Amino acid sequence: MRRLVVALAISLGLTAALSGSVAADISLNPTNQAILSCNDGHSVILGVDSTALSALTADVQSLNASGTGLSCTVDATTLGPSTETTKWTVYDYNPSNNAIAPRNSPNSMPATTSGDTTMFNFRPDKFTALLTTTDPTLTGDLSSKTLSDTITVSGPATGFMTQHGGGDCSNNIPAAVRFYFISPSASGSSVGTPPAGFYTQFWWSNPMHLPLVAGNQTATISAMMSDPNQWSDWNGQKGDSSLVVMEAFEKAIRHVQTIGLSFGGECFFETGVVAGYSGTPPPYEVFSSSFSESP
Question: Which end of the chain is more exposed for a tag (fewer CB within 10 A), N or C?
Answer without folding.
Answer: C
